[in-house]
UniProtKB/TrEMBL annotation:
Lineage, broadest ranks: Bacteria, Pseudomonadati, Pseudomonadota, Betaproteobacteria, Neisseriales
The organism's place on the tree of life at top rank: Bacteria
Protein keywords: Membrane, Transmembrane, Transmembrane helix
Record-listed E.C. numbers: 2.7.7.65
Positions of transmembrane segments: 6-24, 218-235
Alphabetical list of Gene3D superfamilies matching this protein: 3.30.70.270
CDD domains linked to this entry: GGDEF
Database matches in PROSITE patterns: GGDEF
Ranges for domain GGDEF: 302-430
Keyword Transmembrane helix: yes
Protein known as: diguanylate cyclase
Record's catalysed reaction(s): 2 GTP = 3',3'-c-di-GMP + 2 diphosphate
Keyword Transmembrane attached: yes
Length: 430
C-alpha cells in the first residue's frame, strides 16, 4: 500500500511546489536598478558645441531630482544637449536583457514638441571600442512626457537601434538589431530638432524592472523537478522489480528442492518455469508455442528473422568479477535490448550468456541492421563495474524449412562471428 501512496503523495507535493514557484516568480523575485538624485554614478553632459554649434548644457541637482538645463541654439543643423550616466566601467557592462521594462519619472519643459530621446548604449567588441563610447550601440527610445511630468513605463523590447548610428558606423546587418546584454551607459537627449530656447529635462528617477529568475528559467526548473520525481519513481520501481526478481530466484531454488524431493520430471519443471528468473525474459520452454505459431505465419515476403546473440568473454567476467556481477551484466543486457526491439519481437535466454531474438515480419536486411544497432549500442554502453562488454551476432531468416534448420544456420553464423574475432554481425542466407 505504501508503494501505491508514495508516488501519489509525491505528485501532490510537486503540484503544490510547482504552483508556489510559479506564483513566486510572477509576484516576487523582483529585481530593480534605480537611479535618482542620490545616485553616485558618474554623470556627464554634452552639447553641439563640439560640432560647431552654440547650445549650452548644464547639470543641476537638488534633493528630489537631477536636471539637464539646455539653452538650445539653432546655429548647428542638428542642435542637441544630452546627459550621460555611466552604469559601469566593466567591459561586459550590465545585462539589461534580463529586465522587462524601464520606468522613468521625468518632466520635460521646452518651447517645442518636448520629444525626448532615451538611449541605452551597449558595448560589443565585434564592432565597438571599449574607450570610445560613440561606437557603443545606440539602443533608442523616443517618447513625449506629459505636461507637468509623468511616470512612464516602457517595455524594453520597444528599443530600436538609432538609424543615424547604424549609418555613421557602417554596422553589418547581423549586428543591426537591438542589444541590451552589455549596457555600460544610458543617456537622455533632446530631440535634435531646431527648437531654440530653454529646455529642462528634470528626472526624479529611472528604474529598470525585471526578475531574478525569468519565466523561462523557472519553467525549466519546474520541468527539471518533475523529471527528477519521475526518475525517483522509476528507481523505486526498479528496486521493487529487483526485489521481485530476487524473490523469484529464491522461489526457483525452492521449486528445485521440491522437485528433487518429489522426483518430478524435467518436462514438468519446464512447464512451470516459462521465463528466466534472473532476466525476466522467456526461456526455451516459454517460447515454444509462440515460435511454432510464428513459423506457421512466416512467408517469403514477411519472414521470421532469427538472431543469435552471445556475450563475448562472459566467462572471464564471472571468473574475474564474480557471478553477482555477471548476473548484473545479463540483466542490464536484456533491459537494454528490450528498449531497442519491437513489442512483437521475442527475446529468449537460450542458455548461459547466449540469447536468441525472434523477429516476425523482418527481412534479412532489416534483421542485419537491427543486430548491428544492438551491437553498437552494447559496445558504447556504460556497464556495471566499468566493464567493456561486447557481443557477437549470427543472423538468418526462416525459409520453407523446419525451424530447427534456421536455428542451426543462425548458430553457425554466430560461430563464424566469434571465430573471426567477436564483436561483429555475420549473416547466413537460407
Amino acid at each position: 500500500m505504501r508503494i501505491v501512496k508514495y508516488p501519489r503523495f509525491s505528485v501532490l507535493v510537486m503540484l503544490l511546489l510547482s504552483g508556489v514557484l510559479l506564483l513566486w516568480q510572477h509576484f516576487g523575485m523582483n529585481r530593480v536598478i534605480r537611479i535618482d538624485a542620490a545616485t553616485t554614478l558618474p554623470m556627464a553632459l554634452q552639447d553641439d558645441r563640439s560640432s560647431g554649434g552654440a547650445s549650452v548644457a548644464r547639470l543641476i541637482r537638488d534633493n528630489d531630482a537631477f536636471a539637464l538645463h539646455c539653452l538650445l541654439s539653432s546655429t548647428y543643423e542638428w542642435p542637441y544637449c544630452e546627459m550621460s550616466i555611466r552604469l559601469t566601467d566593466k567591459p561586459e557592462g550590465i545585462d539589461l536583457s534580463r529586465f522587462d521594462s524601464v520606468k522613468l519619472n521625468v518632466e520635460y519643459r521646452s518651447p517645442g514638441a518636448r520629444a525626448l530621446r532615451f538611449f541605452a548604449r551597449s558595448y560589443d567588441p565585434a564592432y565597438g571600442k571599449a574607450n570610445d563610447d560613440t561606437t557603443w550601440k545606440a539602443n533608442e527610445l523616443a517618447f513625449t512626457p506629459a505636461v507637468g511630468g509623468e511616470v512612464k513605463t516602457i517595455p524594453l523590447h520597444s528599443f530600436n537601434v538609432a538609424s543615424w548610428w547604424l549609418s555613421e558606423h557602417n554596422i553589418p546587418v547581423e549586428y543591426a538589431g537591438p542589444d541590451l546584454q552589455r549596457v555600460r551607459m544610458i543617456q537622455l537627449s533632446t530631440s535634435g530638432l531646431k527648437e531654440p530656447g530653454e529646455h529642462v529635462i528634470r528626472v526624479r528617477y529611472i528604474e529598470f524592472h525585471g526578475k531574478w529568475v525569468s519565466r523561462e528559467q523557472m519553467a525549466l526548473l519546474v520541468v527539471a523537478l518533475w523529471v527528477a520525481l519521475a526518475a525517483s519513481v522509476l528507481v523505486n520501481d526498479l528496486r521493487q522489480m529487483q526485489r521481485r526478481l530476487r524473490h523469484s530466484r529464491r522461489r526457483e531454488e525452492d521449486l528445485r528442492s521440491l522437485t528433487k524431493a518429489l522426483q518430478l520430471e524435467n518436462k514438468v519443471i519446464g512447464e512451470l518455469a516459462r521465463r528466466d528468473p534472473l532476466t525476466g525474459v522467456r526461456n526455451r520452454a516459454g517460447i515454444r508455442d509462440e515460435l511454432l505459431r510464428e513459423a506457421e505465419l512466416s512467408q517469403p515476403e514477411r519472414p521470421l528473422a532469427v538472431i543469435f546473440i552471445d556475450l563475448d568473454h562472459f566467462k572471464r567476467i564471472n571468473d574475474e568479477y564474480g557471478h553477482d556481477t555477471g548476473d548484473l551484466v545479463l540483466k542490464q543486457f536484456t533491459a537494454e535490448v528490450g528498449t531497442l526491439i519491437r513489442r512483437e519481437d521475442y527475446l529468449v535466454r537460450w542458455g548461459g550468456e547466449e540469447f536468441v531474438l525472434f523477429c516476425p515480419n523482418t527481412p534479412l536486411a532489416s534483421a542485419i541492421q537491427l543486430a548491428e544497432k544492438i551491437r553498437l549500442h552494447l559496445r558504447d554502453l556504460e556497464w556495471v563495474s566499468d566493464l567493456h562488454v561486447t557481443a557477437s551476432f549470427g543472423v538468418t531468416v526462416l525459409a520453407q524449412e523446419p525451424v530447427a534448420d534456421s536455428l542451426k544456420r543462425a548458430d553457425e553464423a554466430l560461430y563464424q562471428a566469434k571465430h573471426e574475432g567477436r564483436d561483429r554481425v555475420i549473416a547466413h542466407r537460407p
